[in-house]
């Protein structure tokens, strides 16, 4: 497992177009899957993450890092799902209010704005979790 200075979390943060965001999210997801696999199955054939011998309770630490990797996978899955969905179904689409009483609806611009905000929030969560995972790996891996 390689952890380098231009890591996948940073690539996701720097991405600006939907295509770049999708590519970077998939890359971060794959990294987290690899990390989890190597932590959960340390004796499997192929490269494996070796924790620093000075790490107290290495099996507990492996479990904590694997859980953090699952959080990264979940965050990137959410972002990928948001990026994959249709932006707006039709122009000037009027959505009913949440209560369904025919009150004031929200326009497609408002729906687009909410989607954009959710995408940015999802990207932020994925970047923060990915950065935390990569930082903790760099501290604990020999």
Describe the protein:
With 142 residues, the chain is mostly helical. The chain has one domain (8-140). It contains 4 helices and no strands. The protein has helices spanning 8-14, 18-40, 58-84, 108-140. The longest helix is centred in the last third of the chain and has 33 residues, at 108-140. The chain is elongated. The termini are close together. Residues 88-94 have low confidence and may be disordered.
Secondary-structure content class: mainly alpha
Task: Note the overall shape.
Answer: elongated
Q: Distance between termini?
A: 11 Å
- How many DSSP-defined strands? 0
Q: Which blocks of ≥5 consecutive residues have pLDDT under 50?
A: 88-94
Number of domains: 1
Instruction: Please report which band the strand proportion falls in: under 5%, 5-15%, 15-25%, 25-35%, 35-45% or over 45%.
Output: under 5%
Largest sheet: none
Please give the radius of gyration in angstroms: 19 Å
Oligomer: single chain
**In percent, how helical is the residue content?**
55-70%
Which whole number gives the mean pLDDT? 83
The number of helical segments is 4
- Helices and strands, in order, run as HHHH
Quick rundown:
The protein contains four helices and no strands. The protein has helices at 8-14, 18-40, 58-84, 108-140.
Topology of this protein?
Elements: H1 8-14, H2 18-40, H3 58-84, H4 108-140
Helix pairs in contact: 1-2, 1-4, 2-3, 2-4, 3-4
Index terms:
single chain; mainly alpha; 142 residues
